[in-house]
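Dear colleague,

As promised, here are the two records you asked about, laid out in our usual form so they can be pasted straight into your sheet.

NAME FIELD: protein one
SEQUENCE, THEN STRUCTURE:
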Amino acid sequence: MSVAFTKEDSAQTAAETMLPDRPIPAGPNLVTEAGLTALQAQLEAARAAYEAAMAIEDTDEKRREGAGPLRDLRYFTERVRTAQVMPEPAGTDRVLFGSTVTFQRDDGRVQTYRIVGEDEADPKAGSISYASPIAAALMGKAVGDAANLGAQELEIVDIA
């Protein structure tokens, strides 16, 4: 095989393993104390995965195995750097960042979510991002208040 093919193959392999950066959400990076701890743990996990990939001897395999961890390392480094830890809500009279709010939808469904930072949000586990449409509609409201979410109305039942 000619040297030209080898260089071309290596260049192609390098291009294939260069992953685009994970998108950084616009706006402030508000987090809870637990959210910052989780970000720091994810940063350390990405660093360990990247270091493990860099220990691989085969150059192409090193690039392939290191691409994901390198992308995650860049993302979590930035997210930890820009994190703004928000204090726990002082009371339960208004929906704030960190509040756990229970609301009832027009169709009778009752849902409970904690309002947290974007990286720590997990709707299936009961937390939503402060930047989500639901959280934006609920912020600043009190028990008994209604919040409009498109054509739907949400009534706040409880704030914890």
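NAME FIELD: protein two
SEQUENCE, THEN STRUCTURE:
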Amino acid sequence: MSKSILVTGGAGFIGSHMVRMLDQRGFDVLIYDNLERGNADAVTAGTLIEGDLHDSEKLHAVFREHDIEAVMHFAALAYVGESVHEPALYYRNNVTGTQSLLDSMCANDVKKLVFSSTCATYGEPATLPITEDTPQNPINPYGQSKLMVEQILKDYAPAYGLRSIALRYFNAAGCSEDGSIGERHDPETHLLPLILFEALRVQAGGNPADTNLMVFGNDFDTRDGTCIRDYIHVNDLCSAHIAAFERMQKTPTEGAEQFNLGVNRGYTVLEVIDACRQVTGVDFGYNTVARRAGDPPELVADASLAMSRLNWKPVHADIKDSIRHAWQWYSAHPPAA
């Protein structure tokens, strides 16, 4: 029997795309998800096991009953605002939940982990672009929870022989190219879906003047006054996870490593809006409101280390690819009114 990859959080946005890609690449896939924020119908391959990270008995049983080669860990809460208001929820799920997973892995001699980390661990960087050596100073509990797990991985490497690669995502975007699976959050807080929701509303006959689309601040020190972010297609994220797994196979004694995942290019909010207008053919409006507290003016990755050491390169570096694929998905699966 072939060895399996266990994907925690595999019913979520990025996790479900990961499951699909692993299946397409010929891997045997197990999915472990409590379905509190995931969607069972997003799991298009593999075997779905409904379970919680804190259920150590169930985790142990999964590792005992299946021949698991490695874990790809996506089971995290990821709303920055929510983390500020509910930090206990984030530390319990993202930190202690992950430690429960790691302890079950080590107890069952599964010693390879690809971890979904985030550029939120950097906080408000003093210099750009952001490299892996940029100081990590998270400004919210979400980023802090991910940084804490990175430290745990560094400590578990020499103590327990755990081989890990933490991938620090910049802004995940897009959907599967064929429109069969996509991004579903409740509530939705990400810029690209919110823009496309507004395009759908206007396309359906809504008055552009009634827009609820908000641009937070137009007085940043950027080329058009709005924030700049680095957007990476979800399938490029997934291919990097497979590249990370392959690197761990070849370098089992490297311990804990960390890599940025981005496209080395930033887009302003207004540039994203303009690109969405071009792709959708819909002329929609927006409202400019005050800045949000703690929004850095610019977050752009230097992902050259991942490109060289993982032998990885983003295929969909142009944000219009992400927009086209997301528009296809949302056109067929519009948000509830």
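A couple of things worth noting about protein two: The chain has two domains: 4-173+232-261, 191-229+264-309+317-332. Residues 32 and 49 are 5 Å apart (CA to CA).

Best,
R.
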